[in-house]
Design a protein that fits this description.
The protein is of the alpha+beta class and 698 residues long. It contains 16 helices and 34 strands. Helix 13 packs across helix 14.
C-alpha cells in the first residue's frame, strides 16, 4: 500500500481533523514569520531614526529658517527655477527642521508651529519636484537627504495619507526609473539608499529583497565600475577605466556600509564585508601618506584633499564591523590612513596602469594611461586642467605637504610631476567625463614582487611620443625616458622631475660648484638639485635643467628642446636627502647602473641590492652588469632578484594583447636556463607572476 492510498482511506472526520491541524500549524509558522519580519523592519527603522537624529540644530538656525519660510512653504533666498542644483538647500533645511522637532534637548522639541512648518515645506518641495540640469541631483542627493527628515517625521506625515503616499512615491522614483548605466558603482549604491527609507516605512519585503540582491552584487569584484580585482575603485569608465576612490569610491563605501550597518542581523543583511575589508587593506591604505592621499585617486576633484577625514571615518566603520580574523589588518590600515607612515612595499594596480611605492620616509607613485584607461576627468566645472593628469604622473610625498594648500589652483598644468609635455600656450582640451583622457598605446603597466617594482608606458599624446619608465628601490628610484619626439611641435618639450609647493631654498651643483637659488629661474646643466628634503641626480650627459622657485612653487624640468627627434632623460630621485655633502657622497657612490635606455628596452641594475629591473617593449636581449644575459620572447616587464634567485614577470599590455605564456631565458657562462610563465588572463591580465630559478654558479 502506498502513501497516497493510506491518506485516501483515512475516515472523513480524521481527515478533516488532520487538515485543520496542518492549517493551524501553517498559520502559526506564517504568523511567526510575519512577526519576525515586522521585528526586522522595526529594528531597521529604529537604527535609521537614531542615525538621522545625530545633530541638534541651534535655536538661531531654526528661528532664521522659520523667518524665511513663505506661506506656500518655500524658503526666501532660494531660486526654485535654477537648474544648477542650488535648490538643494531646501532639502537640507527640511532636515534641520525635522531634527529640531524631534531632538529632546532642542527648544523647538515637539513644537506645533515647527511641525506644521515642516509639513507645509515638505509638501511644497514634493509638489514642485525640482529637476536640475544634472540628473544626479534628482536621483541621488534629493531622495537620500529628504529621507532623513521623512524618517524623523514619519509619524506626523502618516496623519496625512495623501502626503505620506506622495513622499513614498518621491523616494521610490529614482530607483524605479534609473537607467542601467546609472546603476553601477557608487551611483547604484546611492540610488538604492535613496529609496531605502520608503521600503522601511511601507514594510515592503519584496523591494527590500531586491535591494539585498543588488547590494550583494555590488559587493563583488566588478568588470567595469566598482571594486576592481586589484582592490581599487573605478567609476565613470565610458572612455576607459578611471581610478576614482576618494570621491565616488568613498560615496560607494558610505552607502554600502549604511546598508550593512542598518540591516545587520536581519533577514535583509547582505554579504560583502570581506570585500570592503580587502578594499581598505589591499588598496586604500596604499594611497595615503601623512593623512594626504595620492591625487591620482581623486578624479576631477584633484584640487583638494578635503576627503581625507571622510575616508578615515569609513575605515573606522569597516573596523567596527570587521571579523576577528581581519580586524588586526583593518585596524592597521586605519592607523595608516590616519597618518601612521609604517607601510613599506611596492604595489602594481594593473587595472589602472598605476604603481605605488612606499618606504617609511616617503611615498611615490606612477600613474600611466593606455588605450584601456583614462586619467583624471573634468566635469561640472571641476578638473578642467586635467588633460595631462596621469600622463606618466610621478607624485612624491616626503613631508606630506608637497601638493596641499591649494597647489592645484596655482600650478602649471603642463608640468604635472613626472610628465613629458610640450610647453605651448594653446588651450588644452578639457577631458569632459574622461573623453580624450586616453593614451594612444596599449603598453602601460609594470612588474612588482611586493617589495620592489618597475613600470613604464609608451606615451603617444598630441603628436608627442616617448618611452617612459620608473624603477623603484629602497633609498632611490630611477626615471628613464627614450625616443622622445614631437615632429609638429611649436614649443620646447619638458620632462618635469617635480612640481610642488615651495619648501625652503633650492641648492644645485654644477661641476662641483654648489649654488643656492631663491625666487628665480635658472637654466643649467646641473649635476644634482636639492629641494624639500629630496635630491634629484642628473644621469643624462649634457641634459639641461630648468629650475624655478618662488614663495609658492618649486619646479624642476629637463628641457628636450623644440621638436626633439630622439630625446632622452635619465635621473635618480633620492627622498630624505637634504644637504650638499650628502648629495656629493651619493653622486660619487651611485649604487645604480643604467643598462639600457632605448625604444627597445629600458633597464636598471641596483648593484648593492643585486636587483635588475627591465621594461622590454619588444622581444629582445639584455646584458646584465655581471655578464649574464636575459632574453624574452614577448614584450614584458621583468624583475630579477639575483640574491633570491627570483624572477618576476608581468605583461604591461594587460588584456589588450595578452599571451598565454611568456618565456624568459637567463644565460650564465653560456648555459641557458629557460623559464616559462603562465600569464594571468581576463581581468587578472597584467598581474605579476614569479618563479624561483636555479642558475649555475659563476
Amino acid at each position: 500500500m502506498n502513501k497516497h492510498s493510506t491518506i485516501k482511506n483515512i475516515p472523513n472526520m480524521k481527515l478533516k481533523t488532520f487538515s485543520l491541524l496542518l492549517l493551524a500549524a501553517l498559520l502559526a509558522v506564517t504568523g511567526l514569520d510575519v512577526a519576525a519580519q515586522d521585528a526586522d523592519f522595526q529594528t531597521i527603522y529604529q537604527r535609521l531614526y537614531e542615525r538621522s537624529l545625530d545633530k541638534n540644530p541651534s535655536k538661531t538656525s531654526i528661528d532664521k529658517l522659520l523667518q524665511q519660510l513663505t506661506p506656500e512653504g518655500a524658503f526666501e533666498g532660494i531660486d526654485y527655477h535654477a537648474t544648477d542644483g542650488s535648490p538643494r538647500k531646501h532639502v537640507q533645511s527640511l532636515i534641520t527642521l525635522a531634527r529640531a522637532y524631534q531632538h529632546p534637548e532642542n527648544p523647538y522639541y515637539h513644537s506645533h508651529q515647527l511641525r506644521d512648518s515642516y509639513l507645509k515645506s515638505l509638501n511644497f518641495w514634493i509638489d514642485t519636484d525640482h529637476q536640475a540640469k544634472n540628473w544626479w541631483y534628482r536621483y541621488i542627493p534629493y531622495p537620500k537627504e529628504l529621507s532623513t527628515g521623512i524618517i524623523l517625521m514619519s509619524r506626523e506625515i502618516e496623519q496625512d495619507t495623501t502626503l505620506f503616499d506622495k513622499c513614498i512615491a518621491y523616494l521610490r522614483w529614482s530607483y524605479e526609473t534609473a537607467r542601467p548605466n546609472h546603476m553601477t558603482g557608487a551611483n547604484a549604491a546611492d540610488i538604492i539608499m535613496g529609496s531605502f527609507a520608503a521600503s522601511i516605512l511601507t514594510r515592503n519585503d519584496a523591494q527590500m529583497r531586491d535591494f539585498q540582491q543588488r547590494m550583494t552584487h555590488l559587493l563583488t569584484i566588478q568588470p567595469v565600475e566598482g571594486i576592481q580585482p586589484d582592490y581599487l575603485f573605478a567609476q565613470h569608465c565610458g572612455s576607459g577605466r578611471q581610478l576614482y576612490f576618494t570621491s565616488y569610491g568613498k560615496e560607494f563605501v558610505n552607502s554600502v556600509l549604511n546598508y550593512l550597518e542598518l540591516c545587520q542581523g536581519t533577514r535583509y543583511q547582505s554579504p560583502g564585508l570581506e570585500l570592503l575589508e580587502k578594499l581598505f587593506v589591499e588598496g586604500v591604505q596604499w594611497i595615503f601618506y601623512d593623512r594626504q592621499y595620492d591625487p591620482n585617486n581623486a578624479g576631477r576633484y584633484i584640487h583638494t584633499n578635503q576627503y581625507s577625514e571622510a575616508v578615515r571615518q569609513l575605515a573606522e566603520r569597516v573596523c567596527r564591523l570587521s571579523t576577528p580574523d581581519m580586524k588586526p589588518r583593518t585596524e592597521q590600515a586605519l592607523r595608516r590612513i590616519a597618518g601612521e607612515n609604517s607601510l613599506e612595499g611596492n604595489r602594481m594596480f594593473w587595472r589602472f596602469d598605476y604603481m605605488v611605492h612606499r618606504r617609511t620616509g616617503y611615498m611615490t607613485s606612477s600613474r600611466m594611461t593606455s588605450t584601456r584607461t583614462v586619467g583624471n576627468e573634468a566635469g561640472n566645472g571641476d578638473g578642467n586642467f586635467n588633460y595631462y593628469a596621469s600622463n606618466g604622473v610621478n607624485y612624491l610625498f616626503v613631508t606630506g605637504r608637497e601638493y596641499d594648500r591649494n597647489f592645484f589652483r596655482k600650478f602649471n598644468n603642463r608640468q604635472y610631476p613626472g610628465i613629458t609635455a610640450e610647453q605651448d600656450d594653446a588651450p588644452l582640451p578639457i577631458p569632459d567625463w574622461g573623453e580624450g583622457g586616453n593614451n594612444g598605446n596599449s603598453y602601460a603597466g609594470g612588474v612588482s614582487d611586493s617589495i620592489y617594482g618597475a613600470c613604464g608606458m609608451l606615451l603617444d599624446r598630441r603628436g608627442l611620443q616617448a618611452h617612459k619608465a620608473w624603477f623603484y628601490f629602497d633609498k632611490e628610484y630611477i626615471c628613464l625616458g627614450a625616443g622622445i619626439r614631437n615632429p609638429e611641435g611649436k614649443a620646447d618639450v619638458f620632462t618635469t622631475l617635480n612640481q610642488c609647493n615651495s619648501d625652503g631654498e633650492v641648492v644645485y651643483a654644477r661641476k662641483g660648484k654648489v649654488s643656492a637659488l631663491t625666487g628665480e629661474t635658472a637654466r643649467v646643466q646641473a649635476d644634482w638639485v636639492i629641494h624639500g628634503r629630496t635630491g634629484y641626480f642628473n644621469l643624462q650627459r649634457g641634459a639641461q635643467y630648468v629650475i624655478a622657485c618662488d614663495t609658492a612653487l618649486f619646479s624642476l624640468n629637463a628641457n628636450h628642446g623644440t621638436r626633439p627627434r630622439d630625446g632622452q632623460y635619465a635621473y635618480a630621485v633620492v627622498p630624505g636627502l637634504s644637504d650638499a655633502p650628502a648629495a656629493d657622497r651619493y653622486a660619487r657612490q651611485l649604487p645604480v647602473k643604467i643598462l639600457a635606455n632605448s625604444e627597445t628596452v629600458q633597464a636598471v641594475c641596483h648593484q648593492t641590492l643585486g636587483i635588475t629591473e627591465a621594461l622590454f617593449y619588444q622581444p629582445g636581449e639584455l646584458k646584465l652588469d655581471n655578464g649574464d644575459l636575459i632574453r624574452t620572447d614577448t614584450p614584458c616587464a621583468l624583475l630579477w632578484n639575483e640574491g633570491k634567485q627570483k624572477l618576476s614577470v608581468a605583461n604591461p599590455r594587460c588584456e589588450s594583447d595578452n599571451p598565454a605564456s611568456i618565456r624568459v631565458t637567463l644565460v650564465r657562462n653560456g648555459h641557458p636556463v629557460e623559464v616559462s610563465f603562465d600569464m594571468p588572463q581576463q581581468e587578472s591580465a597584467g598581474r605579476s607572476v614569479a618563479k624561483f630559478v636555479s642558475l649555475p654558479q659563476k
